[in-house]
Amino acid sequence: KNQVEQSPQSLIILEGKNCTLQCNYTVSPFSNLRWYKQDTGRGPVSLTIMTFSENTKSNGRYTATLDADTKQSSLHITASQLSDSASYICVVSDRGSTLGRLYFGRGTQLTVWP
Amino acid sequence: EADIYQTPRYLVIGTGKKITLECSQTMGHDKMYWYQQDPGMELHLIHYSYGVNSTEKGDLSSESTVSRIRTEHFPLTLESARPSHTSQYLCASSEQRSGTEAFFGQGTRLTVV
User: Fold this and answer.
1) CB-based contact B99:A95 (threshold 8 Å)
2) Which of A42, A46, A107 sits opposite B101 (nearest CB)?
3) A15 to chain B, closest Cα gap in Å
């Protein structure tokens, strides 16, 4: 069964600190993995995309890693800001269907305190 | 910011009413999707479309219906709203090519009382 598991479920950190969010997936055949940021009451917005051959990709203070062998990804946030408070969702796309199905994790709820 | 819009943003409605949630995109995307999301839970696909006159049911069974008469427009209708329909509904679109980014609207928070 295609699944995406994220940990931790929630995380509280102080402003300026770093944190790492984890994503494990069983989606096959794998197409790509995206990390989305979803602010409360808003739609998700893509932060990074990782394909099979990519190990690391950065977008400002966000750095995503992918280990396609172990089917694990992480999102590292550096020097956190209050505006980073949001849900971070790991989304894996398969390439085994015409639709290119998206499989969503439940997200990690990050709260940054001043 | 993605060019995909949902209206209304918030809706409180009585049981038994008929409602239509609007979704429009100006990116010319062929694929469009409706997701349902409860607080703290993952998104569940309830409807999708490959293009005009194409509609399919998603993974999560839903009493809602959709239509795709125009490329840019993908409305979702509930003929008779119930409290169990209370949720956030997110519309998304993407290019036809598999694996491309899905762009999401702001969502409609529906409350049925």
Assistant:
1) yes
2) A46
3) 23
Q: Which residues of B touch A99 (CB under 8 A)?
A: 31, 48, 50, 98
Partners of residue B90 in chain A, C-beta under 8 Å: 43-44
Element (H, E) at A68: none
Is A105 at the interface with chain B, CB within 8 A? yes
Distance of alpha carbon A67 from alpha carbon B84, whole angstroms: 40
The pLDDT tens digits for A22-73 are 999 998 888 889 999 999 888 999 999 888 888 999 999 999 999 999 999 9
**Cβ atoms within 10 A of the Cβ of B24, count?**
18
What values do phi and psi take at A84, rounded to 5? Answer: -75, -10
